[in-house]
Amino acid sequence: MTQGPAVEAQSVVKHFGDGPDAVRALDDVSVTVARGEFFTLLGPSGCGKTTLLRCIAGFETPTAGRILLGGRDITDDPPNRRRVNTVFQSYALFPHLTVAQNVAFGLQMLGRPKAEVRATTDRMLALVRLDALADRRPDALSGGQQQRVALARALAPQPEVLLLDEPLSALDLKLRKEMQSELKRLQHETGITFVFVTHDQEEALTMSDRIGVMSAGRLLQVAPPRDIYNRPVNRFVADFIGETNFLPATAHAGQIRLRSGEVLGPTTVSGAITVAIRPEQLRLSDPGDHEAIPATVEGSTYLGTDSHLHLRLPDGSRVVARIPSLPQAEPGPAPGMPVGLRVAPGALQVLED
Amino acid sequence: MTMATPEMTARRRRARAGWLLSTPALVLLLCGAAGPLLVVLVFSFLTKGGYGGVELPFTAEAWFRIFFQRDIFDGTVSAADAHIQIFWRSVWLSLATTLITFVLGLPTAWFIATRPARTRTLWLFLITIPFWTNLLIRTFAIMEVIRNEGLLNSALLGLGLIDQPLQILFTDTATLIGMAYVYLPLMVLPLYAAIDRFDMRLLEAGHDLYASRWALLRRVILPIIRPGLVAGCILVFIPALGAYVVPRVLGGGKNMMVGNFIELQFGQARNWPLGAALSMMLLLVVMAALLVYVRAMAQEGRDD
Predict the structure, then answer these.
(1) Which of B73, B199, B240, B241 is deepest in the core (most CB within 10 A)?
(2) What is the CATH number of domain B87-303?
(3) Which CDD domains match (chain A) (predicted)?
(4) Is the CB of A85 less than 8 angstroms away from the CB of B208?
(5) 3-state class of B131 per DSSP?
């Protein structure tokens, strides 16, 4: 997995338009993706993640910076000279070709011998479990099947890097879950480096080896999913990934306190800060618990396995705690009820704004 | 079932109303197309009258005369080279016109289809401007451009590129230039309609899959816009085959196409049956061409 980088972006800048109204789609982005890695670019729409992908694919030329593929500078190569293939959000399957012909297209363009084209096409169709539909046209396939064709088509020429531009966004939830594990399986079986673009944080967390979180053309944090979730570098990342409570607090003499004085936990910094706590890191205890923060229940939302409990703290700020749902017969904490609130050890995130 | 009856009656009444409303147009089409065609077919099997017109008895002489001629003195039969030459010229000029309009029309249609929606309408409007002027006048205008003392030759002489005016007028080249000009919009419009529906994202997909620009054109664009391409070719080839005004004005008297030759039979030559037979022959060639197209389309549809 670490035989050197598969793809590298070095200080990539991309402007759309000229002069003062130019849009900075990418603002000095540098990232290295290792060989065989499943790397995800995550961010809200318009954050530049697709632009970065298109720069790697060759559809956009960076205003400044370099793109390296396997250590070789490909910044000025056209898309057809890059050993990189893309799975498009719209699939962009050729409507005049059958499934098999779609998959064979790249290999034919590379001038591979006929026998090899046929063998590889068959292998790819088997890999995505579409052998039975080889002679169908794309318009006779379901969305999920079209998705598989797009995958097989992009994998067939065995690119050094496979780029996936929000490929699952057009699928319904159930199919999306299926394709997520399918993608992981394909990546595992082919050993090809995947660069995956999505705005869906759950998708990013479940599938990736590492995630790069982007916002407004900048890469904010690159880390494995666990670190992104538990150690977000700033408020944006903490807010974008999962659900988080933000609390204004003061750090003094090694302790973080709410503005009303209750101790939240230990720290090494000092001054006015913001702390982030994940809802599932909050535990309920008795109202009389001296170590707990006294809170008042304001309401709850039933989520199935868990419930969201909306609470008000002594300083007036509101937090959400995620607690296991009680059996139906037992009544949950009712609005107005006083409770104690404990923070799981190590769950406090001190954030720079 | 009883509930459905009034609804069904209403539907039937509506269908009947539809038929009734379209009857005038159907009658007009039937009388205007089938009627005269039948007359022409009958004429082609009659004997020519002394001063034009047709007389009995029925004979296949006119059809025979399309391909063969009898020596006036000894009655020996030989191929009618002049007729075959005229047919041949018509076919190759029409094919060349189709090819030229395609080569010129494809980039034009692509250009228009890729403009922003606002300016696209303007470009389409500009393409249709030639239709506003009478064909005859436009053809004479071309004559003014390409004749020996015309704009083109004056310009070339003035620039010192030639020292003798080019004899373009009254040649096949003149006819070709004229036909390409006249039929170009008929190629551009269906191509535009096809390209307008073309999903430009497929170009990125193809480019991503190692296709060069040329391969994209051949393997992605052309197969997908084929319906528009075929429509354009038919719209150009068929009228070009029967062209009359352009070869008459620009080709001069000698470089006749079938249309001019047919006119000659009904006019000066006073051989109505031959004119009628030639007309039917032209129709058969057109139908054969269409059939080849349809076959080719269906064949490729299966092969893909």
Answers:
(1) B240
(2) 1.10.3720.10
(3) ABC_PotA_N
(4) yes
(5) helix
